Protein 1
Amino acid sequence: MPWGRPEPSFRPLPVKSGATLSLSIEPALLQRLVAALERLAPPPPAPPSLDGADAFVWHPAPVPRLAPVPVVARVEISLLQGIERQKDILLENTLRFSRGLPANNVMLWGARGMGKSSLVKAAHAAANLAVPGSLALIEIQREDIRTLPELLNVLRASPRRTLVFCDDLSFEREDADYKALKSVLDGGIEGRPANVLFYATSNRRHLMSRDMIENERATAIHGQEAVEEKVSLSDRFGLWLGFHNCDQPTYFAMVEGYAQALGLNLPAEALLAEAKEWSVTRGGRSGRVAWQFIQDLAGRLGQAT
């Protein structure tokens, strides 16, 4: 025995060559052990459900879930002025989809404050009014676009038809999230589920800034091919709806429509004069500016909206 090494206080049991040791456990005891381990382990999370509401917000982390929205912040579709053509096209596309017919993904692009996101929410409400409970609206945040394939896998198993909506969608330089959106809109081996449409709003027609496109053209070996690869993302939307700055008569029509809907009693000349002054102080005219003016006016008149 080497110097300084203590002699072990135990010795292994001798086992003959070819023999095996077996540990016998009573079946009842084994079942009790399994039951105890199951009680200690947390139950698996329930899969996200589209029951109980017509609108949801997608939260991919820490546990994927669809948070219901009891009351959607929206305006009636009849109050949206100056966008009659866009309104008719989007409403028809949404109604077809809610009735189980083929429809297109939609890109709403253009001037700020002209009712792009308001029109999406209003069309969803109008479709559910025509076909009650037929359509769910799920909002996905821009920073969660990379989780869109995961969301579609959740929705693929649902019998309910769904609009996935991303507001103010755009991509910056070195941003590769557009590839996830591109693959689920029109590509991939699984393809987009038949019960899902994607609606997006953006201030940019091609979802990317001009300097991002120009940078691709300047740095790539085949510049035009790199640009086409990025610009082709917007081609995956079957419908493009453009929104442009409104003129003064359209702005006045918006103001008068909101005032009438809210029952604001103010002479027409005074109403339009104040609306014009408000637009000058805001540096432009739009549906958002008209609604902000009406909110201010209602507050000054002491009337709830």
Protein 2
Amino acid sequence: MGSFDTSRTAIRHQLSDLINYRELIKLLTIKDVKLRYKGSILGFLWSLINPLMMMVVFYIVFVVLLPQPVSAGCKQTPPVGGSLADIQAAQQCKISNNYAPFILIGILAWNFTSGSIMAGMNSLLGNASIAKKVYFPREVLPISAVLAQFVNFMLALIPLTIVLLASGLIPSRFAVLLPVIFLSHILFLTGLALILSIVALYFRDLLVIMEVILQAWFFLSPVIYSMDQIYKDGAAVMYWLNPIASYIQTYRTLLFFNYDPGLDFTIRTCLTGVVVFLIGYAFFMFKRKQIGEML
């Protein structure tokens, strides 16, 4: 059985060891980014083009073919002191009139999530030859896999900015919270990657099953719709059950709706990332002595 020493000295040593290998994390991250576009004519430009193509497809489906009914002359800004119904009506009006940037934000957040989960889950198995021959903290592999996906996410923010500006949407002062949300999202996905990379060693079929799980997760998350449209009064519960919904909603609140996401909502979203990371890191440390045998 694996073991995880919870003494302060051991934990300090493990974290120190990880920090000492930060250059390796950087190199592996760069390698993963380069491999993603190896042999591609357009290279990293696919990070810009791919989400735009998906945005166009969903725009045609939900705006051209299946337009959502909206009142003519509706207001995109709720009245001062308006009720919850007024706020939701204004949000729906804004979504209907600016569906392209709305859907693009959801696509980018989801691509970062699904890409990190798949890459992180395969990080140990895909680098088995290296892990068997060279010593380094094995957690470096899932961490670098998530960071490589984050680089793609950052590149994809370029077309998002263009689409937002072209739609006349200028992020407000609340956008300064984005770095905090980015960090929380990275921690959340890293925690999942640490757990899944170990589980995949025991259950190789997970790599195939996860594709189906992610497809279902996509439609259960507010990528192509808003939470209020589907879950209405149950939206608060779904934020707890589906943390990705919280991240997508926060990105949209900061970049699309230009609202204050709320202190309690922001703290809960950030704490979710920290808690999942700690659980994932503890689980990985508990099982890391078995990694060599399983590979």
